[in-house]
Amino acid sequence: MKVICVDHIGIACKGSLEDAAKFYTDVLGLKATGTEKVMDQGVATVFVPCGETLLELLVDITPEGNGPIGKYIAKNGPGIQHVALRVDDCEKTLAELDAKGVALIDHHARGGAGNMNIGFLHPKAAGLLLEVCSPK
Ligand code: ZN
Questions:
Q1: What is the pLDDT of residues 40-60, one digit of tens each?
Q2: 94 closest CA partner among 86, 104, 85
Q3: How far is the CA of 9 from the centre of ligand 1 (A)?
Q4: Residue 111 Cα to ligand 1 middle (Å)
Q5: What is the 133 CA–ligand 1 centroid distance (Å)?
Q6: Mean pLDDT within 104-116
Q7: So what's the pLDDT on residue 38?
């Protein structure tokens, strides 16, 4: 397992992605990349590159608003929802963490936005929702 860098910061946002991106594009002058829907997670995302790190703006797209992002906002309000570390190999990293007894949400890598393999650690492992990711 090799941690390379902070890949992105996931920010739970209310409303549409366009509304969510507006501050970053119109006020801060950053550029948003293409939007993407990750249906199995019930989220739509847009990435806003910020130097080497991406801001991942997330909105709930489930009909009832009770996907992971909808639930997060209902409980905590909008804000930083997760931090993602880029690793050399997501699947191997999850296996290594599992072997170390680290509490995991995902025991195997799955497909995420931005053509990445992703997996989440349980918040009790790192004190926040931590994602590990590597390019597919
Ligand atoms: Zn993420």
A1: 889 999 999 999 999 999 999
A2: 104
A3: 7
A4: 11
A5: 8
A6: 92
A7: 86
73 dihedral zone (left: phi>0; alpha: psi -120 to 50; beta):
alpha
Distance (Å) from CA 56 to ligand 1 centroid: 6
Strands 3-12 and 79-87: antiparallel
- What pLDDT, on a 0 to 100 scale, did the predictor assign at position 43? 93
Residues at Cβ < 5 Å from ligand 1 ion:
10, 56, 84, 131
7 CA → ligand 1 middle, Å: 8
DSSP string across 16-42: -HHHHHHIIIIIT------EEEEGGGT
Residue 28 pLDDT = 97
CA of 130 to the centre of ligand 1 (A): 9
Entry pTM: 0.91
Tell me how far the alpha carbon of residue 129 lies from the centroid of ligand 1, in angstroms: 10
Query: What single-letter amino acid sits at 53?
Result: T
pLDDT for residue 112 is more than 90: no
| Cα–Cα dist 29/107, whole Å | 38
